């Protein structure tokens, strides 16, 4: 979930062949890992504005691990319309891995706490 209701949000998707070695906790407000199973033909990352983005496709069906990073959601929530550079950023790392329980590395933003409480 983004904190920015309107305006731009920076999103990066990095699909890797192997597990990332380190978790960068200093640069991010929230970092969580989950498992993702992609059994079907459509394997990719999408958005409501599909024509506006060049997002990667997953190389093949199968189980993946997804590490989602977020920062700037509290600042983004406070702004009704962001016309300059985005204050909110997300990084999504994906790699092949067997299913595993959710791993919470860091939860520090107020927006995330509000979403989890609802």
Describe the structure.
The chain is mainly beta and 118 residues long. 12% of the residues lie in helices and 32% in strands. The chain contains two helices and five strands. The chain has helices at 73-78, 110-117; strands spanning 10-15, 30-38, 62-71, 89-96, 103-107. The chain has a five-stranded mixed sheet with strand order 1-4-3-2-5, with no helix packed on it. The longest helix has 8 residues, at 110-117.
Query: Spans with pLDDT under 50 lasting ≥5 residues?
Result: none
**Number of helix segments?**
2
* Outline type: globular
For the sheet with most strands, the description reads: 5 strands, mixed
What's the rounded overall pLDDT mean? Answer: 82
Rg value: 15 Å
- The side-by-side strand order for the widest beta sheet comes to 1-4-3-2-5
**End-to-end Cα distance:** 13 Å
List keywords for this structure.
118 residues; single chain; mainly beta; five-stranded mixed beta sheet; 5 strands; 2 helices
Topology:
Blueprint: E1 10-15, E2 30-38, E3 62-71, H1 73-78, E4 89-96, E5 103-107, H2 110-117
Parallel strand pairs: 1-4
Antiparallel strand pairs: 2-3, 2-5, 3-4
In short:
By secondary structure, this protein is mainly β.
């Amino acid at each position: 979930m983004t904190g920015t209701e309107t305006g731009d949000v920076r999103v990066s998707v990095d699909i890797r062949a192997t597990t990332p070695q380190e978790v960068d906790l200093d640069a991010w407000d929230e970092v969580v890992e989950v498992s993702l199973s992609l059994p079907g033909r459509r394997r990719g990352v999408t958005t409501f504005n599909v024509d506006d983005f060049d997002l990667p496709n997953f190389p093949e069906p199968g189980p993946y691990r997804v590490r989602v990073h977020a920062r700037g959601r509290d600042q983004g929530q406070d702004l009704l319309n962001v016309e300059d550079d985005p204050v909110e950023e997300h990084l999504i790392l994906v790699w092949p891995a067997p299913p595993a329980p959710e791993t919470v590395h860091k939860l520090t933003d107020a927006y995330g706490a509000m979403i989890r409480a609802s």
